[in-house]
Amino acid sequence: MSGIDWRGLMQAGLHGLGLEPAVFWRLTPVELKIMLGREGLVPPLTRARLAELAAAFPDVRKEKRDGGYRNDAGAAPGA
Fold this sequence. Notes:
By secondary structure, this protein is mainly α. The protein has four helices and no strands. It has helices at residues 6-16, 21-26, 29-35, 47-56. The mean pLDDT is 79.
């Protein structure tokens, strides 16, 4: 189970703000919070909070078929 309330976010963005789905999905979480007037509720990112986020959402190496493959140098193949 995800800790993100997608149903609530989608309802707020699509119905509450009247966004089109394509616009909603292009927003970052911070942009959506600003549009909803909740930007002041999020404290600044601290080292401790960054460590919590890194533990909760670790980086994973994606396979080429996932569309996220990168070589060891960090550049996409052919770039």
